[in-house]
Amino acid sequence: MTLDDLAASLPNGFHDSALKVVTIDSVKREAKLSLEIWMGDCDAVSAADREAYRQAEVSLSGLVFFVCEPPSAGYPYNVKGEVTIDIGSVETLTIPPSPTLPSTPVGCFVNWIFVGAWNAFIYVAAQDAELTWLA
Questions:
Q1: 80-107 tens-digit pLDDT
Q2: What is the pLDDT of residues 22-66, one digit of tens each?
């Protein structure tokens, strides 16, 4: 499964999800993203239904790279706490990534993770993605 497959299975994709923790295990070639995924319905009458979040972990196996751009100047990147993200395929970007990304083996996906508080991207390539609901 890819990150795009996971996004397609969610009501809002990963839009406005909160990234809480990232763990990279270079020995196992895995990354884990602890998230609160926005499950809300914009057309819902109650605020609770519009702003519903659910805790999850996204595991990336067969990790090829995890590249973080530095935060843009003027953005409060040093504020503690979770950051709001969105995720999409690198092919959807209108401007190529600012760091030159390494080539990837056949069968891997390449995605961006946009971090709004940093006005910057994280780029990931892996062989498989899995979503586990925590609550």
A1: 888 999 999 999 999 889 889 999 999 9
A2: 999 999 999 999 999 999 876 756 666 677 999 999 999 999 999
Number of H helices, E strands in the chain: 2, 9
Please provide the DSSP assignment of 54-81 as one string. Answer: EEEEEEEES--EEEEPPPPTTS-TT--S
**Domain-by-domain residue ranges, the chain?**
3-133
- Decide: 66 and 133 in contact? Cβ < 8 Å: no
- Residues 6 or more apart in contact with residue 84 via CB below 8 angstroms: 16, 17, 18, 19, 115, 116, 117
Tokens, residue 25: 């295990």
**Could you give the CA distance from residue 18 to residue 34 in angstroms, rounded to a whole number?**
8
**pTM tops 0.85:** yes
73 contacts 84 by C-beta, under 8 angstroms? no
The encoded tokens of residue 26 equal: 């270079």
